[in-house]
Design goal:
Layout (H helix, E strand, L loop, with lengths): L16 E7 L5 H15 L6 E7 L11 H9 L14 H6 L2 E4 L2 H9 L10 E3 L20 H24 L5
Helix pairs in contact: 1-5, 2-5
The chain binds 4-nitrophenyl phosphate.
The site of 4-nitrophenyl phosphate (4NP) has 11 residues, from loops.
């Protein structure tokens, strides 16, 4: 696991933290989380302190760009997802990434299932555990719904990525 102590002068973590976002298809929720988190990291000048990626527990969309509706919604908020391509989550991801944020409880079950020993389960967390105003444990899957669903996902992801970045920069809050 990456050491995440802070440099006392700059306030930046002294080593790279590897962060992975996971959903089912890797074309809606986890790509926007990857893009928004990267945007927040870069706007704070922390690009050297993080490696950021996303993956899906299913393989249906491997190699595809994020869903057009998600790309358009995200771009309207200033975050391009154009360079992303879907890929499938593997056991090696559980070894590689220090923090794995899954979008819903089904993703949590599927990601844990990859690691039969449970050694890496502590790295896998529900994304909305860090949502300051979560009304559900799950980021709702927008794939079969309307445009409102994509805006709702963006709003959840935006505020939760702020909370994740704060935690990774300062350590978890007490209580
Ligand atoms: P995501 O949304 O998990 O947020 O990428 C979905 C995308 C595609 C499918 C399901 C969910 N699908 O069934 O193809």
């Amino acid at each position: 696991m990456a050491v995440s102590t802070n440099d006392t002068e700059s306030g930046k973590p002294t080593s790279v933290q590897r962060v992975l976002f996971v959903c089912l298809g890797n074309i809606c929720r986890s790509p926007v989380a990857e893009g928004v988190f990267r945007s927040k990291v870069e706007s704070r000048g922390l690009g050297d302190s993080f490696e950021i990626d996303s993956a899906g527990t299913g393989a249906w969309h491997v190699g595809q760009k994020p869903d057009q509706r998600m790309r358009e919604t995200s771009l309207a908020h200033g975050v391009s997802l154009e360079d992303q391509r879907a890929r499938k989550l593997g056991l090696d991801d559980l070894w590689t990434f220090d923090h794995i944020f899954v979008m819903d409880r089904s993703n949590l079950e599927d990601a844990r299932y990859l690691d039969a020993t449970g050694e890496y389960h502590p790295r896998i967390r529900l994304f909305r555990d860090l949502d300051p105003v979560a009304d559900s444990p799950d980021v709702p899957d927008p794939y079969y719904g309307g445009r409102d669903g994509f805006e709702n996902v963006y709003a959840i992801v935006d505020r939760t990525c702020d909370a994740i970045l704060e935690e990774l920069m300062t350590g978890p809050r007490a209580g």
